[in-house]
Amino acid sequence: MQTKQSIRSEIAQKKKQYTREELNRLSLRLLNQLEQHPRFQHARTVLLYYSLPDEVQTHGFVEKWSKEKDIILPVVKGDELELRKYTGKENLTKGNFHIEEPTGEPISEWDTIDLALIPGVSFDRQGNRLGRGKGYYDRLLHKASLYKIGICFHFQLRETPLPADALDIPMDEVWTENGRMY
Question: Are 69 and 44 in contact (CB under 8 A)?
């Protein structure tokens, strides 16, 4: 079985084979499908993320849906993720890892979050997720009982099971630009 680090390296190499425009096109295809998902359509509050250049691109999606839904974004605070409401691009500041993060007050009522769209370096068809290695999302998801949809590009999906341990939180579904994979 491959190590987590070797899988991260393999995915990083695959990402380099795509232009930014191609990743934007794949992102749009994926997010357009997710908009039709009943859980997304019925959700009033959605935990999302403000994407890095090599992730499923969520900036436009966050902006679009923030007019109709409460969009919650994570903020890195030490070894934890704090959750804050997105209130517009003008209220973002560059945080750790050069990620744009909301500047408002942290939210504590996590039970109001109807759906979480979670990024990952890789996912498998059993719902396992491989992150960047810091454990931020796993610690967050241990604290909250959320319906979790992992989103990634199809080339990030693994046919063989990812290495997973007791701290890794599986997703309820996994989606790529080709639709639901798990």
Answer: yes
DSSP string, the chain: ---HHHHHHHHHHHHTTS-HHHHHHHHHHHHHHHTTSHHHHH-SEEE-----TTS---HHHHHHHTTTSEEEEEEEETTEEEEEE---GGGEEE-GGG-EEE-SPBP--GGG--EEEEE-SEEETTS-EE-SSS-HHHHHHHH----EEEE--GGGEESSPPP--TTPPPPSEEEETTEE--
pLDDT digits (tens, 9 = 90+) for 27-80: 999 999 999 999 999 999 999 999 999 999 999 999 999 999 999 999 999 999
- Please give the Cα distance from 44 to 46 (Å, whole number): 7
| Rounded-to-integer distance, Cα 54 and Cα 52, Å | 6
Beta bridge partners of 79: none
